[in-house]
From TrEMBL, chain A:
Pfam name, any one: PIG-U
Membrane-related topology note: Multi-pass membrane protein
Subcellular location field: Endoplasmic reticulum membrane
Keywords, sorted A to Z: Endoplasmic reticulum, GPI-anchor biosynthesis, Membrane, Transmembrane, Transmembrane helix
Organism of this sequence: Kwoniella bestiolae CBS 10118
UniProt superkingdom: Eukaryota
Pathway in which the depicted protein is active: Glycolipid biosynthesis; glycosylphosphatidylinositol-anchor biosynthesis
GO biological process: attachment of GPI anchor to protein; GPI anchor biosynthetic process
Lineage, top ranks: Eukaryota, Fungi, Dikarya, Basidiomycota, Agaricomycotina
Protein name (database record): Phosphatidylinositol glycan, class U
GO cellular component terms attached to this protein's record: GPI-anchor transamidase complex
InterPro entries, per the entry: PIG-U
Transmembrane parts of this sequence: 93-115, 127-148, 168-196, 208-229, 266-287, 294-310, 340-360, 366-387
UniProt keyword Transmembrane helix, yes or no: yes
TrEMBL record, chain B:
Keywords: Signal
Lineage: Eukaryota, Fungi, Dikarya, Basidiomycota, Agaricomycotina
Record's signal peptide: 1-16
Protein name: Phosphatidylinositol glycan, class T
GO biological process terms held by the UniProt record: attachment of GPI anchor to protein
């Protein structure tokens, strides 16, 4: 009887969240030496997201000096204020609770995204989404390392969930917050506005402008608060570092070794190339996937997580979590097994080669660079795969709809959106989606 | 008679001028000090001091007149409005073996080269400092200038550590540390050329033997200049110090295993002719209490002096005495047939050492151990200068006495962080108390930032030196005998600063042969991604019907 009750609870997403929370708290409090070791991992936190830097900044701030004036402190003043005035950065217990709550908030946001996307409340799928996010080793380890990536992810996912539910105000406020803390979420503004437009169902005509104005107001208000707190010096030390990549501490991204080895006179040019490379995808993806802005967000989150200047594994966790809300895409992926196994491979390779170079000092930088190359290439290919799968699903849907319209006698129109039906139909007909060599235009 | 009195009348102002000038005449004095150390070695210190006045200050006519002073040294300082300047090169000192916390000359810096000084303030003070370092760097055949044109490696908050010797208002202190510099034969020739005796006569002729001088173990060279003012004469002082073993290792003198030595034996020359312009030329021998049986022949004049916290016997010989010229002085320990290396050498009252523990290629922890063997607490400032790529974690600093954390002993911490990625320095000043008879350990965790490929020095695999840490004792008293009858009180010393060793840190290096490969490979990954995305976004997508698995296209439809 009791066991059954527990089992039914476990089958609801609340049960999964409870288990996830318990696991995190247990590891935080029970294995604090593990957490301490994870804090130093460059795969989990860069100088821009590490709790060690944040603690240092809070310490300097509490001594009455401005941490942005010198030294190496790249965190947003928002985090500095939060960990100075709200929770103490040096308190292991309170930070552990904060990071656990952040992960829980992320998983609830994912459920909201799924519900608003599918329009149904599928208990099993919700459990799966929650479990995929909370028990993803990348998420779990980022949380245990208390990397601020986990907090960034929570803010961003809630922004996306609010937008998916048509709540413009919270979505814009959260997005401006996410932009403040890690800058790159700014690229998600266009698809987010599109998503809001789609979900609001034309309640207001001028809502694009109002959304933009809200975003700019929130953004400016936060900037104003930051300036009150830390003068103007934080701009160069937070966004400036994200843009100019002045800190070359190794991470899983493609930037650090490139700009370590770059000749000084080409540096500015290649900085421009690398930053524009992130920016360049926003417009085409929003145009091509205009009927599904959430998919556009998914692809852009993947691109950002791979190609931003200071990525961590936590960024990949965000993308993987979001991918859980797109079961039709996962089932249409071309090489999911390859992606997954290479992720496993790099998760062994990265710490191994990092320790060879930076801990024992026996290898050199090429070792770790090679591992980040494998990771980056794999992540890139996975993003392309997801993009392709998204387009394939679209073609399948459109074709099925067309077919069903021609065949009016068939009563399956309502079920046209059901993927299983589509797949069955396509298999029966012997149809498959192809990418032609001819250009769209 | 009339004529002579007329002449007297006419020439009176000139005489008067000559007489008044005589008051401020430049004076030169030199000394050679020997100080046998407890481990069978001896310290040798050459000191040359000139007091001078500037004719510019006393006359309305601009003139530059030098008799005993080197114009190449003083003119750049005068032009750049320098008030005080010290240049010092040091290599090696083992305080545990030599029973003394540092070199005999208190103004010697820690390991490596160092230039520091006070400049009179004006808007271009930074440029003038730059000009001085560059001018004198050429003089000493060592790059003394900054590594960075923006002067990022110049430290300006060490004025409290190296206070002015002579109070001058509105001045700024500058310090530029070159821990990688070391003494070489190229430093000796310019040093000698600055001296009025040029290494040809007097004590300087004993120094002008690079073959002997550079075989010594520990060396320190330096100059210190106090520029003249309207009220004070200027003074410039040069020193050269070294440590040499007395018991020969390759014993060519048969079975002589004693420490017996003579001037000729250690310097390969008999006592030289005095330098005629020298006001004083003195040979000094410092005898510790333990060296009670140290004898010399011919005898010198003995007196008691308080040196570095201890009362010691000083024997002096006046080298201007013609009897000594061309002769030798013998030194021996009475009753010593074989010299036994002592099993225990008493350490100096305060010792300091710095090591790196928890050593990883990218991280580490500085562990600074300060031991106080006295029965009283000492108050001191411990200062560090780090290059910009050393990032200390201030929030994780620990001060331990034994195994116990004692944050209460750390009175104050002044932290001036560097501003990477620009070349800059981090300076740290810990004001702390060192409890009596204990060992305080300061632990500072740090990380090494990743340097750009172009920021590594040639031979990057060797590592980069870090400047010595400086322990400045705040409770020292003048070097006079203390009131109590003890022959020892470590507070009564002119040695205010005790230096740690330099530290060689290896930094994680990139592969220097890789720039093109990295650019090409990273760009390829980017291009692959861009190409695939571009393909997916711009190509037509459609569907085909493949019947009965034979690959035959039955129907082709296109989307959009």
């Amino acid at each position: 009887m009791e066991r059954n009750k527990v089992w039914t609870h476990l089958q609801s997403y609340r049960g999964i969240i409870a288990v996830g929370t318990a696991l995190r708290l247990a590891l935080f409090l029970g294995a604090s030496s593990l957490c301490h070791a994870l804090e130093r991992r460059p795969e989990l936190s860069t100088p821009l997201t590490s709790i060690r830097s944040l603690k240092e900044g809070v310490y300097i701030h509490e001594r009455g000096t401005n941490p942005y004036d010198g030294g190496v402190f790249y965190h947003s003043p928002i985090y500095l204020a939060a960990l100075t005035y709200i929770i103490s950065a040096s308190s292991h217990f309170f930070t552990a609770i904060t990071w656990t709550i952040a992960d829980v908030a992320s998983s609830i946001a994912l459920i909201n995204v799924w519900r608003s996307r599918s329009g149904v409340s599928n208990q099993k799928r919700e459990c799966l989404i929650t479990a995929l996010y909370l028990f993803n080793p990348y998420t779990l380890l980022s949380c245990l390392a208390r990397s601020t990536t986990s907090l960034d992810n929570a803010i961003l996912l809630n922004a996306i969930a609010s937008a998916a539910n048509g709540q413009a105000l919270p979505a814009t406020i959260l997005l401006s917050l996410a932009t403040h803390t890690s800058l790159y979420p700014l690229l998600l503004l266009p698809p987010l506005v599109m998503l809001l437009e789609q979900t609001k169902k034309s309640r207001q005509k001028s809502s694009v402008y109002s959304t933009l104005i809200t975003f700019i107001t929130c953004f400016a208000a936060l900037a104003g608060l930051n300036i009150l707190m830390a003068d103007y010096s934080w701009i160069g030390q937070t966004w400036g570092v994200i843009i100019n990549v002045t800190d070359l501490t190794p991470n899983v991204g493609m930037w650090w070794y490139f700009f370590t080895e770059m000749f000084d006179h080409f540096r500015t040019f290649f900085l421009g190339v690398f930053q524009l490379h992130n920016l360049i995808y926003v417009a085409p993806i929003c145009l091509r996937l205009s009927d599904d802005p959430l998919l556009a967000i998914l692809v852009l989150v993947g691109i950002m997580g791979t190609w931003k200047s200071y990525p961590t594994l936590g960024d990949m966790a965000l993308w993987a979590g979001l991918l859980g809300c797109f079961p039709e895409i996962v089932s249409n992926l071309r090489h999911p097994l390859f992606t997954l196994t290479v992720h496993l491979y790099t998760s062994i390779l990265l710490p191994l080669l990092h320790s060879l170079w930076l801990l024992t000092g026996t290898g050199n930088a090429n070792f770790f660079y090679a591992a980040t190359m494998v990771y980056g290439l794999n992540a890139s290919l996975a993003v392309v795969d997801v993009m392709g799968a998204g387009l394939r699903v679209k073609v399948k849907r459109d074709a099925t709809e067309m077919f069903l319209k021609e065949d009016i006698q068939n009563d399956q129109t309502q079920e046209a959106t059901n993927l299983e039906v589509i797949d069955k139909l396509w298999e029966g007909k012997g149809w498959s989606v192809v990418q032609f060599t001819g250009s769209l235009f | 008679m009339l004529l002579s009195s007329l002449r007297l009348l006419l020439l009176a102002p000139i005489y008067a001028a000559a007489v008044s000038q005589h008051d401020h005449e430049d004076a030169f004095s030199e000394s050679l000090t020997l100080h046998p150390l407890p481990d069978g070695r001896t310290s040798v210190l050459f000191q040359f001091e000139t007091t001078f006045s500037s004719p510019r200050l006393s006359s309305s006519i601009p003139q530059s007149h030098h008799s005993l002073t080197p114009p190449s040294l003083l003119l750049p300082l005068e032009t750049n409005n320098v008030s005080e300047l010290t240049i010092s090169f040091t290599s090696g000192w083992d305080s545990t073996r030599f029973s003394s916390a540092g070199l005999m000359n208190y103004d010697s810096s820690g390991g490596g080269g160092e230039i520091r000084g006070w400049l009179r303030d004006s808007h271009d003070v930074q440029d003038r400092w730059n000009a001085v370092t560059n001018a004198l760097g050429g003089l000493f055949c060592a790059g003394l200038g900054g590594k960075d044109k923006d002067q990022g490696d110049v430290v300006r908050d060490f004025g409290g550590i190296y206070p002015q010797k002579r109070r001058v208002e509105n001045t700024t202190h500058f310090l530029l540390s070159h821990p990688e510099s070391h003494l070489c034969t190229e430093n000796l020739t310019p040093f000698l050329s600055l001296l009025p005796s040029k290494g040809l006569s007097g004590i300087s002729s004993l120094l002008a033997q690079p073959g002997i001088i550079f075989s010594w173990e520990s060396q320190s060279e330096g100059i210190e200049i106090l520029m003249p003012s309207t009220t004070h004469q200027g003074r410039w002082r040069g020193w050269w110090e070294g440590v040499l073993p007395l018991v020969p290792e390759n014993n060519k003198r048969g079975n002589d295993k004693t420490r017996n030595f003579s001037i000729e034996q250690i310097l390969r020359k008999k006592l030289p002719k005095p330098f005629p312009e020298a006001q004083s030329s003195v040979l000094r021998l410092i005898k510790d209490l333990a060296d009670d049986n140290l004898r010399a022949q011919p005898n010198g004049e003995e007196k008691k002096e308080w040196i570095d916290g201890k009362s010691r016997t000083v024997v002096e010989w006046d080298l201007s005495n013609a009897e000594l010229t061309g002769n030798d002085i013998q030194f021996w320990w009475d009753g010593e047939n074989v010299y036994h290396y002592p099993r225990n050498i008493p350490p100096p009252p305060i010792t300091i050492s710095r090591t790196v523990v928890d050593k990883l290629a990218s991280d580490g922890t500085f562990q600074i151990t300060i031991s106080n063997s006295d029965d009283f607490e000492r108050r001191a400032i411990y200062s560090e200068i780090w290059p910009w790529w050393v990032k200390g974690w201030m929030s994780e600093i620990e001060l331990l006495v034994g195994d116990r954390k004692r944050p209460d002993l750390l009175e104050n911490l002044s932290y001036n962080p560097s501003t990477p990625p620009r070349i800059s320095t981090t300076t740290l000043h810990f004001t702390l108390l060192i409890p009596a008879n204990s060992k305080a350990t300061l632990k500072i965790p740090f990380s090494k930032l990743t340097l750009k490929y172009t920021e590594h020095r040639p031979d990057a695999e060797r590592g980069i030196e870090l400047s010595s840490g400086i322990l400045t004792l705040l409770d020292t008293l003048p070097e006079t005998a203390s009131e109590n009858e003890n022959s020892k009180d470590s507070r009564n010393t002119g040695r205010k600063r005790i230096y740690t060793n330099r530290l060689l840190l290896d930094i994680p290096t990139p592969d220097f042969s890789m720039p093109y490969n990295v650019i090409i490979m990273s760009s390829t990954v980017m291009a692959v991604f861009f190409g695939l995305m571009q393909g997916a976004l711009t190509r037509k997508w459609g569907w085909v019907e493949v019947s009965n698995g034979k690959g035959e296209i039955v129907q082709e439809k296109k989307d959009q």
